[in-house]
């Protein structure tokens, strides 16, 4: 991951003056979606880049040690070895960026990766994910326990009530405390944009999260009705750009929820390249939160190599 974001003093004056031009945001998002995506070997290269930025995720009520183990093995070898060999990419160390699980499954993931002799990071959601509606002390304890179990990245959720009622100072203080509880672990802050109401609120929440020391800002939990959308991403990455201009610190971006196709991953990479530049085209500053995306990317790579589409049983499950 990139250097830590130390945060800054909360600038309420800046926050209070923010207004987002909705029409301009929607127009820009349309422009990006309308751009031509690369084809043939260039597309295959971009898809492998997307694979290296995936936080391979399982956040289900029926998660068990065995399916977390399978997820970890898939993260270590995300694309079939024979396909990578045909592209001469078998020895380039292609893995996903991390695996992402619930706090109670962190120890399982750490154990599986250690047994496979892999240094892949384990990310854990925390702070009363997905709703964030548990007492503050409980949320802090959840972060500490996930870190103690070996998580090196923590995906926290903000308290949406504070954002919706404009209590930015209280939100800043909470995120500051989460950051402290993370210790050396990197902190990604989930804004749950589907529940924030307006683009202006999304920008303000993004900025407060970064001022409080978030290393990444993330769109969604994947459990809301609306998850990662391109217009919301434009607002969030513009906030990242403004924060960089103000402080000199680069903060990462993670869209999550509903990203299922290889084609969508290419649009996301295009958006990041255009809005933030090439520095962000790496797992240090860009992640894709996804569970079913990898299967589709692997199918597209199979098609690139063989000229045929794979049946689902021909590719290992994630």
Sum this structure up briefly:
The chain is an alpha/beta fold.
What are the salient characteristics of this protein?
8-stranded parallel sheet, 318 residues, alpha/beta, 47% helix, 13 helices, globular, TIM Barrel
Structure description:
- The active site is at 218 (schiff-base intermediate with acetaldehyde), 254 (proton donor/acceptor).
- The protein is α/β, with parallel strands linked by helices and 318 residues long.
- The protein has 13 helices and eight strands.
- Strands 7-6-5-4-3-2-1-8 form an eight-stranded parallel beta sheet.
- Helix 6 (106-115) links the parallel strand 2 (98-101) and strand 3 (122-125).
- The mean pLDDT is 96.
Pattern of helices and strands = HHHEHHEHEHEHHEHEHEHEH
Q: How large is the share of residues in beta strands?
A: 5-15%
Portion of residues within helices: 40-55%
What is the count of structural domains? 1
Number of DSSP-assigned strands? 8
Low-confidence stretches: none
Shape: globular
The averaged pLDDT comes out at 96
CATH architecture label name: Alpha-Beta Barrel
Name given to the CATH homologous superfamily:
Aldolase class I
What's the CATH C level?
Alpha Beta
Q: How many DSSP H or I helices?
A: 13
Structural class: alpha/beta
Largest sheet: 8 strands, parallel
Strand order, main sheet: write it out.
7-6-5-4-3-2-1-8
Which fold name is given in CATH as the topology? Answer: TIM Barrel
Round the Cα radius of gyration to an integer and report it: 19 Å
- What is the first-to-last residue Cα distance? 24 Å
